[in-house]
Amino acid sequence: MKEMFQMQGACLTIRLPKELDHPNADWIRKETDRLMERRYVKKIVFDFADTTFMDSSGIGVIMGRYRALGLQGGSIRAEHVGDRIYRILQLSGVHRFIEISREKESEENNSLGVEYDGKYQ
Is the pTM of this model over 0.70? Predict the structure, then answer.
């Protein structure tokens, strides 16, 4: 299994757990803040490939990182987002602040050898 936190250049990828509930969200928030204090982070990618449940604390983690990076001109992206999580991001309004790459779009574009940037073309 891949590590939960991966740094590649100035991009931090966070592979989220199956359930992004209060205990997991609190731990992820603390670890992300710790990493951001030690390393230069310009972009955060939340990988929802394994995530099937997210509550309001998960929204809080995303928006908190958005605020932290917003001061530095950074960006947030959610990838491998399934239908259920996509609806939560839409209903909460988070989709207005971050790029979202849906699960089906990512698979289709990867099979074509095209990197999806989360924007409509």
Answer: yes
Contacts by 3-9, CB closer than 8 A, 24 or more apart: 4/28, 4/31, 5/31, 5/32, 5/35, 7/35, 7/39, 7/41
pLDDT class of 2 with cuts at 50, 70, 90: low
Place of tokens 């928006």: 63
Q: How many CB atoms lie within 10 A of CB 90?
A: 12
Domains of the chain: 5-109 (3.30.750.24)
